[in-house]
Description:
Layout: E1 14-18, E2 24-27, E3 40-42
Antiparallel strand pairs: 1-2, 1-3
Domain DUF7129: 11-43
Organism: Natrinema gari JCM 14663
Protein name: DUF7129 domain-containing protein
Amino acid sequence: xxxxxxxxxxxxxxxxxxxxxxxxxxxxxxxxxxxxxxxxxxxxxxxx
Length: 48
């Protein structure tokens, strides 16, 4: 695992943000944005 990646525990909820529309959800591991269907990212993972 990369040191900058957030640890992933499928049983623990995290905050995820949509790459396209910016929707923020609290979930264990969303497949897609509930509003637009785009990819979600864990907000604990830095964008670098």
